[in-house]
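so my prof wants the structure for this chain in the tokens format not the other one, which i didnt know existed until like an hour ago. anyway here's the sequence
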Amino acid sequence: GITATPDGKGYWLVAADGGVFAFGDANFYGSLANMRLNQPIVGITATPDGKGYWLVAADGGVFAFGDANFYGSLANVRLDKPVVGITATPDGKGYWLVAADGGVFAFGDANFYGSRPPGLLNKPVVGFGG
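here's what i got, hopefully its the right format
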């Protein structure tokens, strides 16, 4: 996964093991590289001020770093398909997760606007951009 800094002069990359790599004006706020994860990390999204970020795992587990607040996760929910992406709300007080089958899950101040009903996708969803 990748997410840009608010001014577009840097970005963070996240690896499947939870390692985070900061480039340009992006600052490092922590990672999961030395943690045992139940599922691989599949996405990252930055807070609006760029002073934090969230990581999401395929099982819907969410991990907050820097000034990112934790608003909930799907880590203890049985999912039909794995989570493939995350994006923050404009004010950073919530986020959405998306699963490969088009399921969308809202946390914090993120509103739920609907998701793709099961069986209607020809190919799986692969990400979620903000």
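also thought this was worth mentioning. The mean pLDDT is 94.
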